[in-house]
Amino acid sequence: MSTLKDYRMDIKPNWCPGCGDFSVLAAIQKSAVNLNIEPEDMALISGIGCSGRISGYVNVYSMHTMHGRALAVAQGVKLANPDLHVICAGGDGDGFGIGLNHFAHAGRRNVDITYIVMDNQIYGLTKGQMSPTSPQGMETKSSPGGNPEQPINPLQMALASGSSFIAQAFSGDLKQLVSLIEQGMKHKGFSFINVFSPCVTFNKILTYEFFKKNLVNLDEREGYEPSNRGMAFNIVEETSSMFTGVLYKNERKTLTESQPKGSGTDMLRQGQFELNENMKDKL
Ligand code: SF4
Ligand code: MG
């Protein structure tokens, strides 16, 4: 049985002291050990950005891919190696800017991988420009008068595009972060975990203190049902996305399980895909 030591590399991360990405690194290693996964049975695929360096810091199969393309590579790795546990990791610029297209399609496709985004609401590696999740009005190096654009809400996007497991975590709460990554890895299908991972050097607004003060824990909220999609959309609005925990979870066929074995039309007729009533009448 492997231990944390087996997952560590000799290379030390070059992240700034206090960067939220350290917690994500520790949480991935701890989750793998807790789930009894051997290093040779796991792959970590990352994009470009400070967070993209993570694939070089875990002793598993890994690839540091092109900007915004990590999800495409990770899905390919999983489809070609169905027995590997595949984690894809990156930042908000990588995943919700240049890579947004892949995020939406990964959600609807439901390949059995886990996608972890270290969302620090800024471009850290290029020294502090506004990112797709920077709040409107935030002053950055590229928006000295305040960000004029509305941010993307990754949780709403994941819900809308069909992701079957969606959660949000915070680098300042390692215990919950580990638990959510474990649940995501155990989930059969595409699991997405958005992690508030503060950039202590370039984002002086969305800090550890800010998140500690404002986050509510959905896992402890009485009456919240993660299987209820409507409730999930509502809670994102109600809390302005300031929560941690499992937002949404359902079981549906993965891409591999949905592969047609005969004629696609036969499968539709046999009810192997879900169809709305109007479509059924037309077959
Ligand atoms: Fe982390 Fe920000 Fe430093 Fe990058 S610049 S390593 S995101 S603290
Ligand atoms: Mg970022």
List keywords for this structure.
8-stranded mixed β-sheet; 2 domains; TPP_enzyme_TPP-bd; 11 helices; alpha/beta; 34% helix; oxidoreductase activity, acting on the aldehyde or oxo group of donors, iron-sulfur protein as acceptor; thiamine pyrophosphate binding; 283 residues; thiamine pyrophosphate; binds iron/sulfur cluster; binds magnesium ion; Rossmann fold
Layout: helices, strands, pairs:
Elements: H1 4-7, H2 21-34, E1 42-46, E2 61-64, H3 70-80, E3 85-91, H4 92-98, H5 100-109, E4 114-119, H6 154-161, E5 165-170, H7 174-186, E6 191-196, H8 208-214, E7 216-217, H9 229-239, E8 243-249, H10 264-269, H11 277-282
Parallel strand pairs: 1-2, 1-3, 3-4, 4-6, 5-6, 7-8
Antiparallel strand pairs: 5-8
The structure holds iron/sulfur cluster and magnesium ion.
Residues 15-16, 19, 21, 50, 120, 124-125, 199-202 line the site of iron/sulfur cluster (SF4).
Organism: Cytobacillus oceanisediminis
InterPro entries: 2-oxoacid:Fd_oxidoreductase (IPR051457), OFOB (IPR011896), PFO_beta_C (IPR032686), THDP-binding (IPR029061), TPP_enzyme_TPP-bd (IPR011766)
GO molecular function: iron-sulfur cluster binding; metal ion binding; oxidoreductase activity, acting on the aldehyde or oxo group of donors, iron-sulfur protein as acceptor; thiamine pyrophosphate binding
